[in-house]
Design a protein that fits this description.
The complex is a heterodimer of chains A (621) and B (88).
Chain A: E1 7-12, H1 18-26, E2 30-32, E3 43-48, E4 54-59, H2 71-80, E5 92-98, H3 102-113, E6 119-124, H4 126-131, E7 134-136, H5 138-145, E8 149-151, H6 160-171, H7 188-202, E9 203-206, H8 211-220, H9 225-243, H10 246-266, H11 271-288, H12 291-307, H13 309-322, H14 331-337, H15 341-347, H16 354-363, H17 372-383, H18 396-421, E10 433-435, H19 443-477, H20 487-490, H21 492-504, H22 511-517, H23 526-539, H24 543-547, H25 550-557, H26 560-572, H27 577-587, H28 591-617
Parallel strand pairs in A: 1-4, 1-5, 5-6, 6-8
Antiparallel strand pairs in A: 2-3, 3-4, 7-9
Chain B: E1 2-4, E2 14-19, H1 26-34, E3 42-50, E4 53-61, E5 64-68, H2 70-73, E6 76-79
Antiparallel strand pairs in B: 1-6, 2-3, 2-6, 3-4, 4-5
Classes of the chains: A alpha/beta (621), B mainly beta (88).
């Protein structure tokens, strides 16, 4: 062996508990190349052997065999065979098996062992297998397979030291890894009968099936009751995003305010202070306030994912999605897109059918992502009265928000229907999926997932958003306006906005909006920070104007028709560079991202226009 | 006596008598086999669709539960597990 740090890949079927095992082995020492999907993105981490020698671990997407049915499964094959660009072939494999599903999981394990790489089998979730009435014999299994078998319970960190010890042992004396040219391909039937024989040999006793999961499924997958439960869950989720996020969001907002006044009091007035107070703090602060809402949304998604419910939701939604040419598989990426379209689009890698996948990617930006929340929240709070609807407990503001979410979903279904009959024509999408059993979500895995999302959001706020805000502040501050003229209108940025205003004037957009739209291409929520920055500059040292919130100031300057048109615009507008970039990456070219940007801008312009003209006709202009 | 899986009653165990591999794509067929759906295997249809549709179909295959579409289920013929294969 060379002196390099050995790379060990975790491989296994979906639902074998691979991600939990990866978390247990690496703790928080993980590096995710980009946004994490569930197990779709390349996840790498560090661990060390008992004597302290470091090792590098990679978590590969779950798959059933070395013959891939979807892009993420292809990654698994290519990494293992040493064909993946930019990735060293792993020095050893940890094959993760669900102890309660040996019949099936052993098929892939046999295929992997046949490759001849140093291999250790992790017999995972042994506790759940015992709960289901299975008693297994790991020593016998090891004898049958010809490789070490280590019993593990990843969620309780049981067996981790033994697992790494076995890997260390397997690496000693192993030949250096070389790309594997020939993949043995036994027939499926032969593989299955061998897997069944080994599984039978390693099973000491067995009582039939898991009654618990069956009983829950009888309710949760009931054609009517199950659907109502799904609807109720979605409703609670979106309500919680508002109700629970209130106090922490207020606290964050107050914190930003305290920071601003501290800077104003302690630093003499100069260019830098204005940049920090009016640019950085006003802009970034306006966005960071939405961290609690984003975390709550992700918390729900992570819990649904970890408990095994998400696949049930996909089952229930499949019939409906089939009607527009999609499949239940698309439900998970689309639901993730409510948090952010980027992980959503990455999660589409699990969709095997190419046209089904393309359509799901193209409509993912129509799901109301969390970056739109700051925009919606600001405008709704400023323009929609905070009162109940017809004496019920349902608030009008919440209803408008629900309507905006719904507009995105309905729009997406119509677009999908149209795309599947035109540019993404193809066979009826298939839907084949394994249903995992229910499991208690592990707080450690959920906390780690939340932390990763929070970090990504804050990093975005600290980089893209901070940078665009500062650039915008500079554009709006120079050249200095002569006394009596509006600084914002006189500046470079203001003049650019005046040019754009000509185009968007027909749909009711004013100078403020034109100004906000340009930097909002970087990220939607920048629209809010842009308006905050512009208003902070406009207010200047005017104490009274400074005290007004952004919402109050907009109320004085915009008509209701304009506000509604602005909301309608954001339902459809493709305003986020990251989404366009990820679409380019996932579709291998500029054709589809350009198509997406084009059709979304057209829809946004039309929707805003229709909203504005209708509202004006009703006298709201 | 055989029937097609897409019309088999829920909750009753059946044995796969035959699968029309030629009617499905190679990928579809492979995934079915990866799920353990092969001739001679015993399965139980468990759940079917929602209020909107009779699709999809959830099955128990050994200790695993899998979801397939009714279109694929229509390519799988099943028989009662108690009947002797020789009789058919």
């Amino acid at each position: 062996m060379t002196g390099a740090v050995p790379t060990i890949a975790l491989v296994g079927n979906p639902n074998a508990g691979k991600s939990s095992l990866f978390n247990a082995l690496t703790g928080a020492r993980q590096k995710i190349a980009n946004y994490p999907g569930v197990t779709v993105e390349r996840k790498a981490g560090h661990a060390s052997f008992a004597d302290g020698r470091p090792i590098s671990l990679i978590d590969l997407p779950g798959t059933y065999s070395l013959i891939p049915a979807s892009p993420d499964e292809a990654v698994t094959r290519d990494v293992i065979l040493g064909r993946q660009e930019g990735e060293r072939q792993p020095d050893a494999l940890i094959v993760v098996l669900d102890a309660a599903n040996l019949d099936n999981h052993l098929c892939f394990a046999l295929e992997l062992i046949a490759l001849g790489l140093p291999t250790v089998v992790a017999l995972n979730m042994l506790d759940l297998a015992e709960r289901d009435g299975l008693t297994l014999d790991p020593a016998r299994l090891s004898k049958e397979l010809g490789v070490p078998v280590v019993p593990t319970v990843a969620v309780r960190k049981r067996g981790m030291a033994e697992l790494l010890g076995a890997v260390d042992e397997a690496l000693r004396g192993a030949k250096p890894a070389a790309p594997i040219a020939q993949v043995p391909t036994p027939s499926d039937a032969a593989l299955h009968s061998r897997a069944r024989a080994i599984s039978r040999a390693a099973t000491l006793s067995e009582t039939p099936v898991r009654r618990w999961t069956a009983r829950v499924d009888a309710v949760v997958l009931h054609p009517v009751v199950g659907f109502l439960i799904l609807l109720a869950l979605m409703f609670v989720m979106f309500q919680a995003v508002y109700a629970w996020a209130g106090p922490p969001a207020d606290a964050l907002e107050a914190g930003v305010g305290v920071l601003q006044s501290w800077v104003v009091e302690n630093i003499p007035q100069n260019f830098l202070r204005d940049l920090v107070v009016e640019g950085l703090l006003a802009g970034v602060g306006a966005v960071v306030v939405f961290l609690p809402q984003i975390l709550i949304l992700f918390l729900f998604i992570l819990l649904l994912e970890a408990s095994g419910y998400m696949t049930r939701a996909a089952f229930l939604m499949d019939g409906l999605m089939a009607k527009v040419g999609l499949s239940g598989r698309g439900f998970i990426p689309l639901l993730s897109s409510f948090a952010c379209a980027v992980p959503g689009i990455m999660a589409t890698r699990a969709i095997p059918d190419e046209k089904d996948r393309l359509t799901t990617i193209l409509i993912a930006p129509l799901m109301t992502c969390s970056a739109r929340l700051p925009v919606y929240a600001l405008i709704i709070a400023a323009f929609i009265p905070n009162r109940g609807v017809g004496g019920t407990g349902i608030g009008l503001q919440g209803l408008v928000l629900f309507g905006l979410y719904l507009a995105g979903i309905v729009g997406a279904l119509i677009v999908a229907f149209a795309l599947r009959r035109t540019v993404a024509k193809g066979n009826a999408a298939g839907f084949m999926m394994e249903m995992p059993r229910y499991q208690m979500p592990q707080w450690r895995d959920v906390a780690l997932g939340l932390w990763q999302r929070a970090w990504i959001f804050l990093r975005r706020a600290g980089t893209i958003i901070a940078m665009t805000t500062v650039v915008l502040w500079l554009l709006l501050t120079f050249p200095k306006a002569p006394p009596g003229e509006s600084q914002v209108d006189y500046s470079v940025g203001g003049r650019i906005a005046s040019g754009l205003e000509v185009v968007v004037k027909p749909i009711g957009f004013n100078h403020d909006i034109a100004l906000a739209l340009i930097p909002a291409m970087a990220a939607r929520e920048v629209a809010v920070s842009a308006m905050a920055t512009a208003n902070a500059i406009d207010a200047g040292d005017d104490e009274e104007a400074m005290a007004e919130t952004l919402g109050e100031r907009l109320q004085g300057k915009w008509s209701l028709a304009t506000a509604l048109a602005f909301l309608a615009w954001f339902v459809f507008a493709p305003q986020c560079i990251s989404t366009i970039a990820i679409t380019r990456r996932e579709t291998n070219g500029w054709k589809w991202p350009m198509f997406m940007v084009g059709y979304l801008f057209l829809l946004a312009y039309a929707a805003a226009g229709i909203t504005y003209w209708t509202a004006v006709a009703f006298g709201l202009g | 006596m055989t029937a097609l899986l897409d019309s088999a009653p829920l909750g009753v165990a059946v044995r796969i008598a035959g699968i029309d591999w030629s009617a499905m794509s190679e990928d579809e067929g492979r995934r079915l086999r990866e799920f353990g759906l092969m001739e001679g295997v015993e399965i139980t249809p468990l759940h079917r669709g929602s209020i909107f549709s009779r699709d999809p179909l959830a099955l128990a295959v050994g200790r695993m539960r899998v979801i397939i579409r009714a279109r694929q289920a229509a390519m799988i013929s099943v028989e009662s597990p108690v009947s002797e294969p020789a009789e058919s």
